[in-house]
Amino acid sequence: MLLLALDTATPAVTVAVTRGVETLATATRHEPRRHGEVLAPMVVDVLQAAALDAHSLDAVVVGVGPGPFTGLRVGLVTARTLGAVLGVPVLGVCTLDALALASDLPEPLLVATDARRREVYWATYDERRDRLTGPQVSRPAEVGWSGPVVGEGGTLYPDDFPQAQPPSWPSAQHLARWVEQRRPTLPPDPLYLRRPDAAEPGPRKSVL
Amino acid sequence: MLGIETSCDETGVGLVRGRHHLLAEALASSVEEHARFGGVVPEVASRAHLEAMLPMLELACTKARVRLDDVDAVAVTSGPGLAGALLVGVAAAKALTVGLGKPLYGVNHLAAHVAVDQLEHGPLPEPTIALLVSGGHSSLLLVEDVTAAVTPLGATIDDAAGEAFDKVARVLGLPFPGGPHIDREARSGDPAYVDFPRGLTGPRDLAGHRYDFSFSGLKTAVARWVETRERAGEPVPVPDVAAAFQEAVVDVLTRKAVLACTERGVDHLLIGGGVAANSRLRAVAAQRCADAGLTLRVPRPALCTDNGAMVAALGAELVSRGAAASPLDLPADSALPVTEVVAR
What we know:
The complex is a heterodimer of chains A (about 210) and B (about 350).
Chain A: E1 2-7, E2 12-19, E3 22-30, H1 35-49, E4 59-63, H2 69-86, E5 90-93, H3 95-102, E6 109-114, E7 120-125, E8 131-138, H4 140-143, E9 149-150, H5 152-156, E10 164-165, H6 172-180
Parallel strand pairs in A: 1-4, 4-5, 6-9, 9-10
Antiparallel strand pairs in A: 1-2, 2-3, 6-7, 7-8
Chain B: E1 2-5, E2 10-17, E3 21-29, H1 31-34, H2 42-64, E4 74-79, H3 83-100, E5 104-108, H4 109-115, H5 117-121, E6 128-133, E7 138-145, E8 149-155, H6 161-171, H7 178-186, H8 203-208, H9 216-231, H10 238-264, E9 268-272, H11 279-292, E10 295-297, H12 301-304, H13 308-320
Parallel strand pairs in B: 1-4, 4-5, 6-9, 9-10
Antiparallel strand pairs in B: 1-2, 2-3, 6-7, 7-8
């Protein structure tokens, strides 16, 4: 299958075009808060580098988070809209799953990414990279994991995660590989894991 | 031309053929999700945009009996507005243009509110003075070329007019959004019941803020009046207070708009934005324009509130005048100045 994969659930924006186990072209840029600006040109560039027309794609694969909401939505709305205009299916993959698959470690591991507010998004995996727990959002100390940690969370909180391991960011080719390995996919819906910050107004304040 | 609007709480998609022919529009609103918070919650609006985007694209195409691949160009509101909300529309528009291989136009929300009138009343006379009033904006613009020369003459220095309607509605125990409820209550009220203040209309203010607006003092004046009544244990006549408040807003808006027309020698006034759906504003503007010999243009209410057709209308006008397209790395700009009709 010819797949376009993309992820915007971390400060990295990553795009890849793959056919089977082969990565035809890929690009990853660390662009915090500029996902909306860099993603579309990267898609064009990666398709061009692979010498492909968008209409030859068989499916679009998108990282569904968890991740900071604003950036996460850029990837999701891009993937959904591309799927609609190209008439191809859109498959969701948990961003933490792609990070787990990217690690070469032979043992079980924790994936942790930055959830801001001194918290991490995290999930645990066995040595076959089947997800055991998560995804969840917690303070690092509450996760209670002393083994290897993949993702930026490991380097951000060394006191809680002494065994940080690469990679820090997801790469889109691993999203595509997750699909090619026929692992479970998700609908292309965001994993927010938090409710919007909003408080109902209290009683009207006096102006007298 | 396909137009996408997501600057606030409405997800709009419109399709325009040629310069002025509205084929179809589709609109989803998250307003009911915001009601209990008393105002638009940006994250709630952004989530709703993501969920509504594809359904609205599909609905607009179905209504227009076209397919997405029939679209020749895509226009999207790239600002001003809520940053996270704008970004959903901008990203969707970019994905469409990447998939279609067609040009992208990132356009100014305020200029789109002006251009939309062409869908209903034909080519816009230029120059026109535009009064744009909504929950987020209150501006007087000199429009010499809706695609290239829009000059701000004045704007609110505090609350937008629609914001004042929302806040006064809350004081009066009316639901959010306040505009339609105040309009309805006011129909059986006496607009002269209380002489509420007309912000920035005194001689000194007219010197420094000739075409600017201020509604914060008015809102506080209404709240003080209501609270004084309540403390004294007296009833608050909601229709009368609503009518008197609405009269103060409408009086200032129309007075300054007509003043701008006469002083600038412009004989056309256009009113747009959600507050342009207010029946009293439409009536007083019609009367004062007639008295001053001005031609008034106000789109039908569904085109005054935020929608995708207005974005498509401006996009179509840009194409007809040969404007250059926007780059694919176009940012969503929450503070895009009105002088930038096409975002770069």
